[in-house]
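yo

u said u wanted the structure for the complex thing, so here. seqs first:
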Amino acid sequence: MSSNTCQSAYCNQGWSEVLTHMSPYGYANFGIAFGLGLSVVGAAWGIWLTGSSLVGAAVKAPRIRSKNLISVIFCEATAIYGVIMAIILANKVKKPEEALSTLSEDWDWAGYYYAGYGMFSSGLSVGLTNIASGVSVGIAGSSCAIGDAQDASLFVKILIVEIFASALGIFGIIVGIIQSNSCTFPVTAI
Amino acid sequence: MATPAPKSTPGNMANFNILHGFPEALVRGMRSSFLADADYHHLTQCETLDDVRLNLSETDYGDALADMNTLIPTGLQKAAVEKLVVEFQYLRTQAVEPLSTFLDFITYEYMIENVMLLLKGTLSGRDINELIAQCHPLGMFKESTMRSIPTFESSPRGYQDLYQTVLVDTPVGPYFSLFLQESAGRGEVSNVLEEVEIEIIKSSLIKYWIEDFGTFVDSLGGATAEIMGDLLKVRADTNAINITLNSFGTPLNEPAMRASDRKRLYPALGHLYPAGTSMLGDVSDEDELGRVLDLFPQYSSIWNVHAAGGSDGKSIDDAFYERDVMQLELAFEGQMHYGAFYAYVKLKEQEIRNLVWISECILQQQKEEIHKFVPVFSFNAPWRAGSKKQGR
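structre next:
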């Protein structure tokens, strides 16, 4: 092992060094990207699950077609959670007052890294919960359309199931906001 | 066996709808076209066939019967079957692999029946045009294929020629070739009546079809394998029991043929296979059959209907139909599997049987017999909760 270790000053000494050398600004922006992107994946997944069943079931029972758009809107809400989170996070990324190639020694390094990791994790929290929520709403919505076509009294009942599935995404966004609350990028040296 | 394994699976809850969401929702939407309890109630109250037509014009059958001046049971059946075929073909055009292969599998059964109908018809010297008109439209081949089937003589040599020149290109060709291989292996069986021979061919082809379908459904996996696999198992068992029951009093029940021929006709699939079918192979009369079925709780109750001698006017076929309807209705309870497509076709067939029965009873003034049918998706069904007949 030791014989293979690179002795140059420019070498990485392990994963911890690789990770700490990635810019916290990069972490923060990836957090935004994952939060928004995964939420949209979840919403899109739910919409086609619901949509394909909706058009099929509407052939024999055309009355369901506008009512069941509510299921599609529930899926769409998942994407909106991602957008809200992305806007909150994007407002927290602040560039330093002086543009320097290196940061000074008395820069608030702890707060700097804390903000980067915090925003990355908060974006992932929102994104992953929203995928689960979107797929869940989509499956319930697909069954809702098929059930409603047979028996109109089922619609409201399955809608409640969908609301609970949709609530999964809200859990994610609540925790995401709390996680990112204390993340503030330092703009000047202490 | 004959059909290669599917290249893709139907998918699970999260991705089934990518390819099959639309056709599945279509077939589930079509579930609303089944006649309801109220419709059956009105139909059974009818005095004449014109009343029947009037009642049906308000149901999903309205368009199919619109240009029919006088309603007769056979005409009603033809129109209803044609309606089912149009719906099925619509579903088939919307389907992509592997659902399209699955739907084709449903039609193979009718193809086998048509081939056998043509062969049997020519044996009794009937007109080819008349026979073709009787064929089930779901199992049609090309016109030229249909016309050339009855030209072959009914002997092992003739079947060989029939396979090589006509059936080799059709989807049921592989089953026929399997049958030929097997009958070549068992050698020349003498003094079998031609009509028994035809029944043996038919049962063998259906057996190969069920086994092939079963393998295909198994390779699809997931909820499809679970639900459709069970439907096919029950189907295979029903066939095995019926083959045994129908063989009593025919050469097939002779001790020599029991082992060599009848045993071969039992599908290698189902709840009875292998322990039950091997016992069925030695059965020589109804009492022994009853003793074997006693070991299988799901069939002993059906057998008891038969053993009771139809005291409440029910035959074993009615008992099987009733059980089938219950099973097929269950296929509609789950989502994101293919079983619903098979169940739809089979339940529609049951509904057509009901309509024909009701109209025949009215035509022949047999009103006391009119309630002997098995309604589909009925709230009064004995297996439904809240029904008055519960705990039967």
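The CA atoms of residues 325 and 347 of chain B lie 7 Å apart. Residues 387-392 of chain B have pLDDT under 50 and may be disordered.
cya
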